[in-house]
Amino acid sequence: MGLTLTEKILKAHLVEGEFVKGQEIGIKIDQTLTQDATGTMAYLEFEAMGVPRVKTERSVAYIDHNTLQSGFENADDHRFISSVAKKHGIYFSRPGNGICHQVHLERFGIPGKTLIGSDSHTPTGGGIGMIAIGAGGLDVAVAMGGGTYYITCPKVVKVELKGKLSPWVAAKDVILEVLRILSVKGGVGKVIEYCGEGVKSLSVPERATITNMGAELGATTSIFPSDEITREFLKAQKREEVWTELSADADAVYDEVIEIDLSKLVPLAACPHSPDNIKTAEELSGMKIDQVCIGSCTNSSLLDMLKVAHILKGKTVHPDVSLSIAPGSKQVLTMLAENGALADLIAAGARILESACGPCIGMGQSPNSKGISLRTFNRNFEGRSGTKDGQIYLVSPETAAISALTGVFTDPRTIGDMPEFKLPETFLINDNMVEPPVDEKDMDKVEILRGPNIKPFPQTSPLSETIDVPCSLKVGDNITTDHIMPAGAKILPLRSNIPAISEHCFTVCDKDFPKRAKELGQSIIVGGSNYGQGSSREHAALAPLYLGVKAVLVKSFARIHRANLINAGILPLTFVNENDYDNINEGDNLEIKNVKADVVAGKTTLTVVNKTKDIEIPVLCELTGRTKDIILAGGLLDYTRESLKN
Ligand code: MIC
Ligand code: SF4
């Protein structure tokens, strides 16, 4: 029986467990990446592990999220990360060099390698045939130290692409179509593998748009084969030597198959407030808009920018619309400057932003009250833009650019003929904004620069004999990490300071939660399905840890967040009967007797007694040997320290 591409790469990296779907496997990690909003914590954790130099083939630290320096905090974090990187063997991509995923694809990614990154859009690397997975900072720290990375051995979904996209229909519309079919929960426990003759019609940046936004499916990752088109891209990046041909066997067996005829796709949009709330651009056409933002790790490649420049050339942005554009990397921005396209963007009235995440993470450019904003980004969760009642629509750069001119939602197929947009034969290569680490012999000479806002990892404690605590918060379905630990320009500078950032935990849902949780001392959070979807930020587990949350009991979890809870030593529990969700109210006293003994004994069904209502609720506590030991130890940091001692 033939193998899928996912199986081939995972099997070649398997170091622990058996390759049985649904079971935990350990894989060797070749490369890691971090960004600054998760990076400071990841490097504090790396330091705490006491490993002198990274053991990966390549580790890169990027500065791209917290670039709005409205106080000393972000700049201090940048200096800290730069000094840690220099000392411990990590390449440092300076602020201004671009968004981590865009730059990693251009300069560092290698087909067939494994990559984990402390950012949920790390699967962008799947665009060149990598197994690239988003993870919590602590998992990345462990992988940098040479530790194994654990995932549930995934199911593999084949997305068979047929035909070719029609003019002005984009890669973004492909992933929006997949989101329409599968929903934001549809990818959980799965890798999405793209195959079929349609693959040949998609360039690497287009493939990367699709794998990037596969994160919104909740998928473990997404991957394209590495073929002639991949080779040409790497050659144009002067990295042809890292190319290898990779694809699934012809007789590979998949767990699920989806067929998409590219020629039948039309321009789409994800409507507020979920990436799977899909309508066609035609249905929305004519709706007045206030803002357009083009950029983010999903759609900021040179190809995207050239299309936008073509549409804007010689025109003026509609007077009622603010258009901002952030090219994804220094390479993209420089090439736009050199070929004149940047001048076309500026002349049309675009507000050019630095090559960074910017508005995607709420770092500026929040829309006006109730403002309708078209964005080429990947997430439109409520409040993420910084404007609580902002209405965010996720669209292709083509739809965004034409709508910026007309002032209303516009189907780009109305533009007229589309010229052929081609990638250059060679990109402009200048890695002067990537600083290599010092030699190992000189590492002791590097001083670590720690600002006053950088506080240590919060206090952890081993699992207690019994958990007997109140429910401090009850929330509904599809809670995102932006609800649990909001981002944005005001809160992001606190990413290195868990006590301070905890004051904002869950305030989007309930402004009194942090105070209440602290007063209660210890508590349990109760939630619905797909709890913790979205970002990889471990702060969504570390802030609850700091606030005394001992367990989270929900209908189902999103993958990365569940792993982050375990890493923080917080017990992840799910209802055996989802109806029992109705049997708990905020303030109820909940008891899990002898929880420690039961976890040690490997019991997977525990009983939560709602003492207030006198009801017994069966819950699942599915921990494997390793995750069980992590929970017992009080988190991954304690567990890793223990295992390094042995
Ligand atoms: C995001 O898009 O939400 C982020 C900001 O890139 C996060 C990481 C973070 O919260 O720092 C992600 O996607 O993992
Ligand atoms: Fe940055 Fe947005 Fe991409 Fe997250 S999704 S890495 S915030 S550009």
Describe, in plain words, how this protein is organized in 3D.
The chain has 646 residues and is α/β, with parallel strands linked by helices. It has 3 domains: 5-264, Aconitase, domain 3, CATH 3.30.499; 268-410, Aconitase, domain 3, CATH 3.30.499.10; 467-488 and 495-645, Aconitase, domain 4 (Alpha-Beta Barrel), CATH 3.20.19. It is 29% helix and 18% strand. The protein has 22 helices and 27 strands. The protein has a 7-stranded mixed β-barrel with strand order 21-22-23-24-27-26-25. The chain has a 6-stranded mixed β-sheet with strand order 7-6-3-4-5-20. A hairpin with a 7-residue loop joins strand 1 (14-16) and strand 2 (24-27). Helix 2 crosses helix 3 and helix 10 (302-312) runs parallel beside helix 13. It is globular, with a radius of gyration of 24 Å. Residues 65, 99, 119, 121, 296-297, 357, 360-361, 377-378 line the site of iron/sulfur cluster.
